[in-house]
């Protein structure tokens, strides 16, 4: 996903970056964070109301080697990064100085940390690793640090990608073991200040038999609730949840299967806009990026794909 | 050196010429022999011998599905605790990466039962980020290129 893919109308940041591997926008869209193979994280800010002016205003150094992923929390207050050095770093945005300060280094994984994803509304971070496990963390005011609140085991190989549903009650994980697992959150029986984050996560569904090679990417559309995957077998697939969320074991059916890519699909990402009015329909696009150096866009309606762009 | 006097094996005969070799209208499908010819001459990182001479690669441990775009190479380290297994696998992967059309999905694995860390090595060799990172390392890339040179 090099920035060099951008059309000439957009600013090409690639000359200023060393092999960026992953990038995400902030909730406001005014900032962009890029993770790089050189061990740094860069935060870019849009300096004008056009999309062409971007400035690198913070370079976060500390990881020993390749940074695999970096992303902003829903509040925009925190930034998280992870690396082949087995650590997850949490960076806090300081309002007064407009700087990012490392507030925690988490050493819970025993191998490369491949991916990160924030809860859609809470300060709850999930990480996936080459050690086949997923960790979840939240801030702990008692120790002024971050703490691990869950450790999810079950995948038989590397966890490549994670995605929450819109409410944050379900977490999807994509793995080298050719499956996608769905984990469901159950709040603790004793309510506390941390009831939203400190319950248990249980694997309630495993999507197996659909993917024939490593699943590299998963993304959950927060408007349609459709789940998309990108796979090493060149396919982009979309699954629809067939039971309501309250069901103890949600089930999924495959509603879309596209193999126009000719090589591994490394990333899938939804772009969804809520309907503008009563009779309007939501505008849903699914983007996929592949080793074949092609990005495809597919347009979806609420219930399924309409046509490819 | 872990295995000072490895056993050497007879090399395969050269592929017999075929009447249609120079006929542009005849399509030759990729087969195990073609993949074997690509990797048989790779030099062992430790010994002055090729992977074929050491029986690390054998033609009957190569599976090619030309229409299904799949290649699987299984290799057998000379000793079960060979510390060079990952490097040998990396050399095979790089040679195939550089030689085969990109439509092929390539799996390079250790032959079952022939190495104590088989699962770990296989996992490393199938992780494309780790393979890419290894090749970013100039020293390692130099070693790989030496193994791949004639």
UniProtKB/TrEMBL annotation, chain A:
* Keyword tags: Repeat, WD repeat
Give an example GO biological process: iron-sulfur cluster assembly
According to the record, where are the WD repeats?
23-45, 60-92, 106-137, 152-193
Which residue spans adopt a coiled-coil conformation according to this UniProt entry?
Answer: none
Any GO CC annotation of this UniProt entry:
cytosolic [4Fe-4S] assembly targeting complex
Gene3D superfamilies from the UniProt entry: YVTN repeat-like/Quinoprotein amine dehydrogenase
Q: Does the keyword Repeat apply?
A: yes
Protein name from the UniProt record = Uncharacterized protein
- Name its species: Salpingoeca rosetta (strain ATCC 50818 / BSB-021)
Automatic annotation (TrEMBL), chain B:
Per the record, the domain of life is Eukaryota
Kindly state which keywords UniProt assigns to this record, in alphabetical order.
Chromosome partition
Q: Can you list the GO cellular component terms from the UniProt entry?
A: cytosolic [4Fe-4S] assembly targeting complex
Which intervals of the chain form a coiled coil? none
The MIP18 family-like domain sits at: 34-109
Gene3D superfamilies for this protein: 6.10.250.1280, Fe-S cluster assembly (FSCA)
Gene Ontology terms: biological process: chromosome segregation; protein maturation
The similarity comment for this entry is: Belongs to the MIP18 family.
Protein name from the UniProt record: MIP18 family-like domain-containing protein
Origin species, per record, is Salpingoeca rosetta (strain ATCC 50818 / BSB-021)
């Amino acid at each position: 996903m090099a920035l060099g893919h951008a059309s000439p109308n957009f600013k090409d940041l690639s000359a200023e970056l060393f092999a960026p591997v992953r990038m995400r926008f902030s909730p406001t869209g005014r900032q962009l964070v890029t993770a790089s193979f050189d061990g740094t994280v860069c935060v870019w800010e849009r300096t004008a109301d056009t999309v062409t002016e971007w400035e690198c205003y913070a370079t976060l150094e500390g990881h020993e080697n390749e940074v695999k992923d970096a992303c902003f929390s829903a509040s925009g207050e925190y930034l998280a990064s992870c690396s082949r050095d087995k650590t997850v770093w949490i960076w806090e945005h300081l309002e007064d100085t407009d700087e990012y300060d490392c507030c925690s280094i988490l050493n819970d994984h025993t191998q490369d940390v491949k991916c990160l994803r924030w809860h859609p509304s809470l300060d709850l971070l999930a990480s996936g690793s080459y050690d086949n496990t997923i960790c979840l963390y939240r801030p702990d005011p008692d120790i002024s640090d971050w703490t691990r609140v869950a450790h999810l085991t079950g995948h038989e190989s590397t966890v490549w990608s994670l995605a929450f549903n819109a409410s944050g009650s379900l977490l999807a994980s994509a793995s080298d073991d050719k499956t996608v697992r769905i984990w469901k959150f159950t709040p603790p029986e004793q309510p506390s200040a941390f009831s939203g984050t400190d319950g248990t996560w249980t694997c309630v569904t495993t999507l197996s038999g659909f993917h024939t090679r490593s699943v590299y990417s998963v993304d959950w559309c927060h408007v349609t609730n459709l789940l998309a995957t990108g796979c090493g077998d060149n396919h982009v697939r979309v699954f629809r949840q067939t039971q309501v969320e309250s069901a103890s074991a949600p089930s999924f059916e495959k509603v879309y299967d596209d193999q126009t890519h000719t090589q591994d699909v490394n990333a899938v990402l939804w772009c969804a806009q809520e309907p503008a009015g009563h009779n309007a329909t939501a505008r849903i696009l699914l983007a996929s990026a592949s080793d074949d150096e092609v990005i495809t866009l597919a347009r979806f309606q609420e219930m399924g794909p309409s046509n490819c762009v | 050196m872990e295995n000072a006097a490895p056993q050497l094996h007879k090399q395969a005969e050269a592929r017999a010429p075929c009447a249609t070799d120079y006929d542009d209208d005849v399509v030759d499908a990729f087969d195990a022999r073609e993949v074997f010819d690509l990797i048989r001459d790779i030099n062992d990182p430790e010994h002055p011998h090729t992977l074929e001479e050491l029986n690390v690669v054998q033609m009957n441990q190569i599976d090619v599905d030309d229409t299904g775009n799949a290649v699987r190479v299984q290799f057998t380290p000379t000793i079960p605790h060979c510390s060079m297994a990952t490097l040998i696998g990396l050399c095979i992967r790089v040679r195939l990466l550089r030689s085969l059309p990109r439509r092929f999905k390539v799996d390079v694995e250790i032959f079952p039962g022939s190495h104590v860390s088989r699962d770990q090595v296989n996992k490393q060799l199938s992780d494309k980020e780790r393979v890419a990172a290894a090749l970013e390392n100039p020293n390692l890339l130099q070693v790989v290129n030496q193994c791949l040179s004639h």
